Amino acid sequence: MTRIDQVVAWEALDSRGRPTVACRVTVSGGSSGRAVVPSGASTGSYEAVELRDGGHRYGGKGVRRAVEQVNTVLADAVRGLDTAEPDAVDLLLEELDGSSRYARLGGNAVLAVSVAAARAGATAAGMSLARWLHGPGALPLPMPMINVISGGAHAGRAIDVQDLLVIPLGAAGFTEALEWCARVREEARRLALAAGHGAAVLVADEGGLGVPLGGNAEALDLLVRAIESAGFTPGTDVAVAIDVAANQLWTGDGYELGSEGRTLATAELVDEIAGWVARHPVVSVEDPLHEDDWDGWAAGTRRLAGVQVIGDDLFATDPSRLAEGVRRGAANAVLVKVNQNGTLRGARGVLDDAQRAGWATVVSARSGDTEDDWLADLAVGWRAGQIKVGSVHRSERCAKWNRLLELEATEDTTFTNPWREAAV
Fold this sequence. Notes:
By secondary structure, the protein is an alpha/beta fold. It has 14 helices and 15 strands. It folds into two domains: about 5-125, Enolase-like, domain 1; about 140-420, Alpha-Beta Barrel (TIM Barrel). It has an eight-stranded mixed beta barrel with strand order 5-6-7-10-11-12-13-14, surrounded by six helices.
């Protein structure tokens, strides 16, 4: 009753109004699973390839070719497979393409089938996707990393770094954690408006505030004042995380901080970030350097000892790149974006490899996301410990937070706090 009977895909829209692939998998017993896949703006060179149509329609970003691949090649291949054995579905998907990073069939097409099949399997088993992935025992709700101020590719480069986020270290549960972060975001908006930054009412791609400020340090100052104004102790109750997204700053000759009129060498950028950490309650830094600077990453991780250093574009949720990072000591945490990899099995393998190495793991959405909420179940079912999906504004962001609130209310859960349970 759990064998795949039908696979149907269609073109949907993501949060930027760009096409993406949606898919429904129905099994022989009548249960089904639906998935709509996300798409990134700040993308690395080593991610799974999205299959786009080109031409004039949607500025070349249509996905009719990817949809056709799902409805023909992929549907024919997976029909009859048992969703009760999810690895069997994903293994076939991984082998079917035959090219590097799904360049032939499209990572967006493959992932849609992978997620929809898993959801169909969970539905047929009469349980949530989180429970189906986790098994017995309390489900561990992840610590949220919530976007407050945006720049880079997410906010028209209002500041250079891509995101400034908050982590509610002192929260006792997920509901409290979410409410604390919402209070900080609202205070940041209020303070920015009071200071004459009228653009503070503008919302960036991931729901953060697109505030034009005098530079990155000024944005950090604003965020710390917002934490204090919300009634919290910076660094104890609520800490700061920075997503530098250094690929977007790299010119080939250095890192350009356009909002400050400066270009920095690798060592200078690491010094700059270390200064931010020294002066502000920063506990996590993502992508401080570009994706090919292995030596710089290793040196930067040593320099930022005691800070969670997350690799996103550096690893692209790829097992071989993660293994190289572990060998070199480049980073101590990995961002897991399933569409960078292409299948649930592949992405979970990267997460498991990182945790076996003693690294922290963060499951992440993309800037072009949808109202679909399956990512929240993955973060819980995979025991990721942390989740990063954007701010507490925009419905495609809140869909994931609302799903976690639902799991907290309806399942046996615990709340994960990596900063309390183990040293980073």
